[in-house]
Design the sequence.
């Protein structure tokens, strides 16, 4: 399968992933396997579709990373978040359908567990990026669940007072992450718009949203989920905030669920800065691993983020330092900036039906003078980071345990 810009789509191409209506995510415009024609391509342009995934025989190995059920479940989460904010804007005394949230989260978890290879953050596959708040909430929920599943053993160790079988469950992590920014709906007028324009975390009105959200959900959802809403801006080093007159917490005093959502929230905010294009994932991860910023987050949680968020996601078009171009077909959590790359002779003239054995470069096995210099048209030659110390203990597990839930 190959991602192509719609402007480069041609009649005869077959869809490798369904195409959803970006204005109504529950509706599928075209199913997997549909063969494009000129009329259909024009209609997709009218819907505002920018990219599609098409069948490519030589890149069939990518299919393991893309699962229709997971994408559908992500859409369901996004729609429920959108409905909640719509209700909050229209009503004063509102009854939020928390039970429905739990069911949606359980369904997504089930699909992730059943499809571990697809349990990875590959960007906005569900097409929910039309509204900043909805997109952010959906991304944070998905990222938090991915990390929570990787941290199964750590969750048990951190939640010693409850039964291990319950401690490792992440349904309440998902519910809390869905609602982590619900307090934004109760902010003074203009405060959220101002934050989107400036990204100013010091704005005193913006800092009210954790406490406002907590008051809305307290008593309606499990305490472990409610603490996410209150404490997702608390930081491991003692910095951070949780609302007016609420003292800062540090380290393991912050519930592990809030630590997970806090990092997911920070990552997505940095990936999609206000009024700016989406940044390269490798740039955001590199900054998060920097000495000063990394101290703000639990190192176990940071390790989980690197395991589920590839700097160069499978399917990305890259150029190597020797001039060759190719498609990322796998990633290596223990050495994340050195993915597996299938070499392509010419991006503009790929034979979609060619099923001959491909030449794959395993960068983690190559000399360091061979590396990724460009990803999706962006110069990343100075953004690659070396193997993080938090991942060093994973040496030797690169291939054997790749993709398994509960790795960390």
Sequence:
């Amino acid at each position: 399968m190959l991602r192509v810009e719609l402007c480069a789509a041609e009649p005869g191409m077959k869809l490798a992933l369904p195409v959803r209506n970006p204005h109504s995510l529950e509706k599928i415009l075209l199913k997997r396997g549909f063969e494009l024609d000129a009329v259909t391509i024009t209609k997709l342009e009218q819907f505002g579709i920018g990219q599609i995934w098409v069948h490519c025989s030589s890149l069939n190995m990518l299919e393991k990373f893309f699962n229709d059920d997971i994408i559908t479940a992500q859409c369901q989460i996004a729609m429920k978040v959108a409905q909640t904010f719509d209700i909050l804007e229209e009503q004063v005394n509102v009854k939020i359908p928390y039970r429905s949230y739990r069911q949606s989260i359980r369904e997504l978890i089930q699909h992730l567990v059943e499809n571990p290879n697809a349990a990875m953050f590959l960007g906005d596959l569900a097409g929910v990026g039309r509204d900043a708040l909805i997109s952010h909430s959906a991304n944070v929920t998905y990222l938090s669940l991915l990390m929570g599943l990787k941290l199964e053993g750590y969750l048990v160790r951190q939640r010693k007072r409850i039964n291990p079988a319950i401690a490792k469950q992440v349904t309440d992590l998902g519910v809390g992450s869905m609602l982590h920014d619900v307090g934004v709906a109760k902010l003074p007028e203009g405060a959220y718009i101002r934050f989107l324009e400036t990204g100013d975390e010091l704005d005193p009105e913006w800092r009210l949203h954790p406490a406002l959200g907590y008051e809305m959900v307290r008593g309606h959802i499990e305490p472990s989920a409610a603490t996410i809403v209150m404490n997702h801006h608390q930081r491991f080093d003692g910095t951070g905030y949780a609302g007016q007159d609420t003292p800062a917490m540090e380290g393991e005093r912050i519930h592990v669920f809030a630590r997970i959502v806090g990092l997911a929230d920070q990552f997505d905010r940095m990936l999609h800065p206000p009024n700016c294009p989406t940044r390269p994932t490798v740039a955001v991860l590199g900054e998060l691993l920097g000495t000063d910023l990394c101290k703000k987050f639990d190192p176990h949680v940071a390790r989980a983020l690197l395991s589920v968020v590839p700097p160069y996601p499978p399917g990305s078009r890259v150029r190597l330092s020797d001039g060759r171009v190719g498609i990322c077909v796998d990633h290596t959590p223990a050495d994340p900036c050195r993915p597996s790359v299938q070499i392509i002779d010419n991006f503009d003239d790929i034979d979609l039906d060619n099923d001959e054995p491909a030449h794959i470069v395993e960068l983690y096995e190559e000399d360091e003078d061979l590396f990724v210099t460009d990803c999706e048209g962006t110069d990343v030659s100075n953004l690659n980071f070396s193997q993080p110390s938090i991942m060093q203990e994973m040496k030797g597990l690169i291939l054997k345990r790749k993709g398994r839930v509960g790795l960390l």
Summary: The radius of gyration is 21 Å.
